[in-house]
UniProtKB/TrEMBL annotation:
Superkingdom of the source species: Bacteria
Protein name: GNAT family N-acetyltransferase
Source organism per UniProt: Georgenia subflava
Domain called N-acetyltransferase: residue spans: 16-177, 180-330
Keywords of this entry: Acyltransferase, Transferase
InterPro entries reported for this sequence: Acyl_CoA_acyltransferase, GNAT_dom
Signal peptide segment: none
PROSITE patterns on file: GNAT
Keyword Isomerase: no
Gene Ontology MF: a single term: acyltransferase activity, transferring groups other than amino-acyl groups
Length: 330
């Protein structure tokens, strides 16, 4: 059963295609100019969002509203990633052109997304709890009110942190204890890192095991991934911890500074409390600085029980932005 298309006077609704990426990107850029989000999207990013993954089907999992001139005014996507075993998560992303807000389009997009999310959960046939999930930034109060009106609940708060890498903010020394080795990322470690990640994040809110295809496409195979900024701590041949870092250059102009971003930092339970996490972060900081990058950045769940936020603060990271995960049980 196909979800009922949004019904809004003046717009024609259909699924997105790759050929729509330029007009879709114009819409996203118009939203970014007003909303000032932390993440900016390139055309390549949007193409990936539609098609990069065997689990993606834009014909059923996307919608765009076009005005009489063929200009994109609203869109919505729903994605259920492979690998979800404990909870099926239907990730929703969408938006409305600033000039078309206040006409009910946002409500229609969210309604369509929820219907499609429920269908995708049924298709997954996992027999486990499921929810629709979306993220919005703390300062976007209209978006927050819209989600809350649709029954989504603010469930988790996240903070982006940044750390200067100039001479006034020296990178500290961190020494690992005997037997542990810090080495640069190597492609031969891609699969051991995925398995280490799944173990390290098993007790984190909202985390599910990463499937191999997802990991290879979006983590160690993504265009923004920087192997030279990413490191692994080994205990013999065992992966004890790792950091994955990227360069999101499309964000730098709006930020006003260049930044090396730590996408993932994980330490397996048996190796925690051995200074592995700070050693990995410091190694990435030095690599960022060596390439002339001005700041190090990362994001954290403020309710993370591992003490991550306190660690980052001790290392000199400072809060920059806040965002909220909104969830609706399905």
């Amino acid at each position: 059963m196909t979800p009922t298309a949004p019904a809004t006077a003046g717009l024609t609704w259909r699924a997105l295609t790759v050929e729509d990426v330029p007009l879709w990107h114009d819409l996203v850029r118009a939203m970014e100019a007003v909303d000032d989000p932390s993440e900016r999207y390139t055309r390549d990013d949007l193409t990936d969002a539609l098609t990069d993954g065997s689990w993606k089907n834009p014909a059923t999992d996307s919608v765009v509203g076009l005005d009489e001139n063929g200009v994109a005014r609203a869109f919505g996507l729903v994605e259920v990633r492979p690998g979800d075993t404990r909870t099926v998560r239907a990730f929703c992303w969408g938006g409305v052109h600033p000039q078309w807000r206040g006409r009910g389009l946002g409500r229609e997009v969210i309604r369509w997304q929820e219907e499609r999310a429920r269908e995708k959960v049924r298709e997954a046939r996992c027999g486990v709890p499921a929810y629709a999930r979306t993220h919005t930034e703390d300062h976007l109060t209209d978006a927050r009110h819209l989600l809350e009106h649709a029954g989504f609940v603010a469930t988790r708060w996240f903070v982006d942190l940044t750390r200067r890498l100039d001479a006034d903010h020296p990178v500290p020394e961190v020494t690992l204890d005997g037997g542990l080795r810090l080495v640069p990322y190597d492609a031969a470690l891609a699969e051991p890192l995925r398995l280490a990640h799944n173990e390290s994040f098993a007790d984190h809110w909202g985390s599910e095991p990463r499937a191999r295809e997802d990991w290879e496409r979006y983590t160690v195979g993504g265009r923004d991934f920087r192997p030279a900024w990413s490191f692994v701590v080994l205990d013999g041949d065992e992966v004890a911890g790792y950091t994955i870092a990227s360069a999101y250059e499309q964000d730098w102009a709006a930020q006003g500074y260049t930044e090396g971003w730590t996408d993932l930092l994980g330490v397996r339970p048996a190796w925690r409390r051995r200074r592995i996490a700070p050693a990995l972060l410091v190694a990435s900081m030095r690599a960022f600085a060596a390439d002339g990058i001005e700041r190090a950045g990362l994001g954290v769940d403020t309710e993370n029980g591992s003490g991550a936020l306190a660690l980052y603060t001790r290392l000199g990271y400072e809060p920059e932005r806040r965002s909220i995960a909104y969830v609706k049980d399905l």
